[in-house]
Amino acid sequence: MLRQLLSFGALGVFLLQTPSGASQTTSQTTSQTTSRLQRMLVTDTATTHDTPSPHPLTWWTQNPLRLDEGRSLLFGIKAADGHIISARDYRFEQKVTTLGTISGHRIVEVITTIHDQPSLVLPKFPDSEPSQPSEDVPPTQWKSLLVETDASDHYVEIYRLQAEYGTYLSMTSATILGTGEDAILRTFDPANGNGGGCSEGYWWFDKSGAHDVDFSPLDRAIASVQPPATTAWPHCWALASNTDEARVGVQRTDAKCHACDWLGEIVATYQFKQGQATPTSIHFVPTPEQ
Fold first, then answer.
1. Separation CA 104–CA 208 (nearest Å)
2. Structure pTM?
């Protein structure tokens, strides 16, 4: 199916940047390894966690629109002209990148960009008229982070973000921070708008696979210097840079508006060690009085 789509350009373009491979082992070992891994699934409606199953890389690259888990695509619904919306009403592009290897596990990223076909006219929903998506609206994008298992060319998905029509800024690649046993896989995708939200994930690795980084030591250190009657969110934009520094805005709990009553920021340096974000220095910097 994918070979036909690529030949005629009707549905998708598949860009493979780096080949992937794996070593041979038994299915029993694969099951033991993958049973310890957890997947984070982020859609427009919820963030959930589940246990992934291993698949060959083609699971994510051949006919990938079938993997829609957030109903971003309107399959099965009647379009304005009466036809049932299917994969033929969309075209997709994929960027498949090998990000690197940590603790013997190859890490592959798949970013899928989905465009509505020009002929697709969306049906009339309550309080709306039939319409075509505006050219100004960004396309739907999905990001998958895949970790190689012990089986030949098999991967498990540890992270999946489905962003519908520009709910997040255009997706960028995840990165590997550090080297050796303390290397970290990091993904960061800021949400659109000025709310400061994002989707992010940090993982450390051992022979069994990927594990969430424990940020509780850093969180406790930040809370220890946070002024009373204030709110602070030590993630998303606070950790947006690829450095070992966090800058956490501090706002009065009774702030009059989203942009009001910011009192300063907490500046913390930290390092990733044995799967934890361990603070090395921390202090509160008040905003200079105007």
1. 10
2. 0.80
